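the two lines:
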Amino acid sequence: MSKPKFVHVTYIASTPEKVWQALTDSKITAQYWFGYSLQSDWKVGSTFTAKKGEGKPVDHGIILESHLPRRLAYTWSPQYEQFKNERPSRVTFTLAPFRDQVQLTVVHDDFDKGSKVFESINGGWSKALSSLKSWLETGKGLEPSWSENMKKVREAMRA
Amino acid sequence: MIDIGQFKPKTVYVIYIASAPEKIWQTLTDRKLSKQYFHGNSVEIEPRAGEKFIARLPDGRVNVSGKVVEWSPPHRLSTTWTVEWISEMRELPECLVSYDIEPAGDCVRLTLTEAYRWDVPEAMLAGGRMGWPAILSSFKSTLETGKPLIIKMDRRRR
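prediction for all of em together
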């Protein structure tokens, strides 16, 4: 059995610089990424946090690679109770330009076998990346049932 | 009729689109609209189970042929799928391609599933795994912005 690995490819009518900015600017991430601000100086070895408004971070990690505007990688440690025994996994964004578009590949890997984090991420990435594409192409992020998801997350946090 | 229970999903791609299920259905099944996002292929499909489905290349040759397995607008479209234009692939067992369309908040979740009833080698899945993200990214742009993406694919199978 190979180790769990999630791969999602999407094509966006944009430039690598704009996609990079959308991935790293806390004001922009809040508009398409479940409302979360991702904050960091995005230098290798620095930390990042993802949080909503002044709330507690729901995720944090360490920047592993930062080659503007082609490749960004960081560790991923969701701060929910049910994941507290797992070591950090890894997220890598690769931005490849093609004419007037960008091929954005997200690989989320370095999970242990049977990882609960792995089971939880598939739906989230499809939503966040669909919303990112809409934000860049139309100026509007998507809101695919955030509220229902957030209810589940809040229940999980209280548990 | 084929037994769809024999087909196991091998490639699944999920994308969220700011649109309505009916518009997504129409765009998936309309000959002219399909040309915009499907690398110039036109989808020719008869609107009931058991009937013919063809994806035709811009030069008129048949790219993909199959049969409609499920026609449930605007929720589920499922067809068998045989790649005709590559002679080595023509002889392989058909696969099953399904689109599931579900409302999700203020947008729609479109799930593409490519399923097989034989032990298909991973290398053979590479074409679809490269192709679907491009087709469906362009599909989403067509619906949201009116502008499809022109994405050049390496046509050689790896």
